[in-house]
Design a protein that fits this description.
It is a single chain. The protein is an alpha+beta fold. It has two domains: 15-88, Orthogonal Bundle (Helix Hairpins); 95-229, Immunoglobulin-like (Sandwich), CATH 2.60.40. The chain has helices at 15-47, 53-56, 59-88, 216-229; strands at residues 95-102, 105-110, 117-120, 142-145, 149-156, 161-165, 170-174, 180-185, 190-196, 208-214. A five-stranded mixed sheet has the order 3-2-1-5-8, with no helix packed on it. A hairpin with a 2-residue loop joins strand 1 and strand 2 (105-110). The protein is elongated, with a radius of gyration of 24 Å. It starts with 14 loop residues before the first helix and ends with a helix. Keywords: Copper, Electron transport, Magnesium, Membrane, Metal-binding, Mitochondrion, Mitochondrion inner membrane, Respiratory chain, Translocase, Transmembrane, Transmembrane helix, Transport.
Length: 230
């Protein structure tokens, strides 16, 4: 999760987020090289009075500074398109969870089970246990098995919301009357935090998202207990 003085992204917890981090580093290297080159040209032009007559009118240089940016753009666009299509792929999910945004809480429905659904509210500050995080903890977590493809269907009951978990590389708008879907694979067990990322009213910053990835056996025990207590 995020922590004070964090300059980069959160640690990746899914293959898609790992790809996004690699693409970010790839694009950043290109950006640094271009910035350094432009800075060198500016400094050279300011500090020298010499002029090269071949630069003033050169067909070769014009060809180079037309083709080179195109090559750079292609080297950025191709990995970007690959990740974009990868994020849209949903292949044989093992579990489907429907997340519904409300003002100002989330409700979850495990559609593969007959009676497994619950509301997830933020825990007030005065009720937090030692070690829990303010504005991020919920009374019910979305529990999923790790190393399993999970499909998440997102919608809203009232206004626009956005279901976002940075560690998993997910950010999906919740639109009333529309069902959006995405998928993720939690590559390791853990607790991953997110928040509503669409301004949805007065308590917009008080509807956190907590995804807990556990081994399959623990998930089966949890689902059995949840259905039994319903």
């Amino acid at each position: 999760m995020a922590h004070p003085s964090l300059l980069g992204f959160q640690d990746a917890a899914s293959p898609v987020m790992e790809e996004l981090l690699q693409f970010h580093d790839h694009a950043l290297v290109i950006l640094f090289l271009i910035s350094a080159f432009v800075l060198y040209i500016i400094v050279a032009m300011v500090t020298t009075k010499l002029t090269n007559k071949y630069i003033l009118d050169s067909q070769e240089i014009e060809i180079i500074w037309t083709i080179l940016p195109a090559i750079i753009l292609i080297s950025i666009a191709l990995p970007s398109l690959r990740i974009l299509y990868m994020m849209d792929e949903i292949n044989n999910p093992h579990l489907t969870v429907k997340a519904v945004g409300h003002q100002w809480y989330w409700s979850y429905e495990y559609t593969d089970y007959e009676n497994l659904e619950f509301d997830s509210y933020m825990i007030p500050t005065q009720d937090l246990a030692p070690g829990q995080f303010r504005l991020l903890e919920t009374d019910h977590r979305m529990v999923v098995p790790f190393n399993s493809p999970i499909r998440v269907m997102v919608t809203a009951d009232d206004v626009l919301h956005s279901w976002a978990v940075p560690s998993l590389g997910i950010k999906l708008d919740a639109v009333p009357g529309r069902l959006n879907q995405t998928a993720f694979v939690a590559s390791r067990p853990g607790i991953f935090y997110g928040q509503c990322s669409e301004i949805c009213g007065a308590n917009h910053s008080f509807m956190p998202i907590v995804v807990e990835a556990v081994p399959l056996k623990h998930f089966e025990n949890w689902s059995y207990l949840m259905i039994k207590d319903a």
